[in-house]
Amino acid sequence: MTSASPASPVDELFERTRSQGRAALVGYLPAGFPTKETSIRAIEAMVEGGVDLVEIGLPYSDPVMDGPVIQAAAEQALAAGSRTTDVFDVVRATAATGVPTVVMTYWNPVERYGVERFAADLAGAGGSGLITPDLIPDEAGPWIEASGTHDLDRIFLVAPSSTDERLAMTVDAASGFVYATAVMGVTGAREQTSSLGEELVARVRAVSDKPVGVGLGVSNGAQAHEIAAYADAVIVGSALVRCLLDAPDETAGIEAVRALARDLRAGVERN
């Protein structure tokens, strides 16, 4: 069991949304896609549309858990020369909007950058924490130490396939919130949300009162409304990325991001 720490910006967000009787809206966009400057503008539009917490993706060359939409965005960002230091620039600009900002990254780039250095630079840019989809708590010793030193939240993932023992250990090691992947397989927007989400949230709540966010598959306000009825946060990624991928130009893409964020926020507000 990790020692208690002061309330983080993520903790304060969930205290606020719980007091308002609604789920938080979490929006994901990759840093540097299609350019660093445009990714910052798109994230600002997402916040203006009503996103409560921003999840910034660190582009990676081998995104094994990401679907084709996020893979395509990561490839464009890397082709444009996006580097880890650019991610911290995007974090700094996002945090300046006043919303809690976390980075989603595979573990290999953090190890290459240096775990302590990464934590220090993330905190220095105003970041609130890190989502690590391929890092399990029992292999996270260096990150648990570095995140504790720099007051960063550790957001671990649980899945429908998680055993009760594994789920309890992961939830205990997590801070900020627990990321519940409600479908099996790679990420991507879906026509229907998974029926496994509500059951997985219930399993987490049986062992902890930490907030639970549900991700993978949400693409519109109606689906956000459905998940907000039982989760503490609705996490949306691929649908927002697609707004930029499918747009005829960057300005139209940014407007599409803002419009989708508004629709998603209306969905979580209806509860």
From TrEMBL:
Catalysis: reaction(s): (1S,2R)-1-C-(indol-3-yl)glycerol 3-phosphate + L-serine = D-glyceraldehyde 3-phosphate + L-tryptophan + H2O
A molecular function (GO) term: tryptophan synthase activity
Keywords: Amino-acid biosynthesis, Aromatic amino acid biosynthesis, Lyase, Tryptophan biosynthesis
First-level EC class: lyase
Pathway: Amino-acid biosynthesis; L-tryptophan biosynthesis; L-tryptophan from chorismate: step 5/5
Listed SUPFAM superfamilies: Ribulose-phoshate binding barrel
E.C. designation(s): 4.2.1.20
Active site residues per record: E55 (proton acceptor), D66 (proton acceptor)
Entry superkingdom: Bacteria
GO cellular component terms listed in the entry, alphabetical order: cytosol
HAMAP family for this protein: Trp_synth_alpha (MF_00131)
Record's subunit section: Tetramer of two alpha and two beta chains.
Entries under PANTHER family matching the protein: TRYPTOPHAN SYNTHASE ALPHA CHAIN, CHLOROPLASTIC, TRYPTOPHAN SYNTHASE, ALPHA CHAIN
Family note: Belongs to the TrpA family.
Function of the protein: The alpha subunit is responsible for the aldol cleavage of indoleglycerol phosphate to indole and glyceraldehyde 3-phosphate.
Protein's name according to its UniProt entry: Tryptophan synthase alpha chain
Species the sequence originates in: Aeromicrobium fastidiosum
Gene field: trpA
